[in-house]
Design brief:
single chain; 221 residues; 2 domains; three-stranded antiparallel beta sheet
Amino acid sequence: MALQTVDDPKVARRGEGKSRLLRELLHAAEPLTVEQLTKRLGISRNAVYQHIAALERENLVERDAPTATRGRPGQTFRLSEEGRERFPRQYALIGSLLIAQVKKHRGSSELKSYFEELGRQLAQSEGAGLQDADWRARTDEIVRLMRELGYEAESGGVSKSGVTEIRARNCVFHELAQAHQEVCALDIALLESLFGTRIEHTECMARGGACCRFKTVKPKD
């Protein structure tokens, strides 16, 4: 059996078919049956079933309540929240506009203070119990928490003198941070609250770095 690549027309058509199906569900006023999707897309029932099965595995489509038909009730389908997130949303744009207004009326220093407070609040809500862990375990848990929050984080290890480095290969607020570097205060305040000590931001993607690099030292007992 020949291997299919992304250049294979059949694979391309399947990808296009799934995209069209997602778009139909997005525009529909209510969940749709396989029969309705077949008519709207102009493809076979079998093709619709295949697309739906694939999209369900990807958690982009989910089942809704069956609808009454002439025969047995027909299963209906709708977009999941993950499916809706596949369509563009301008979070960065509205965020940048809001930040610009705060900066205009309150100034850079107060804007930075807002982000520091947000970082501390995030640490308080997500980092319960970390202060009780030993330094190495705390570092590992902070890296795990950062990954849950969307950071591609990794630990550089803990040296014998207690120096710890965490690297984030992405910036979850990159567009905002490039326009308003006060945003970086959130990351620093988050890590300072989680570690319970001062953090040094030694490399920053918003300033042209290859990653965001954070360095700290274990406090003396």
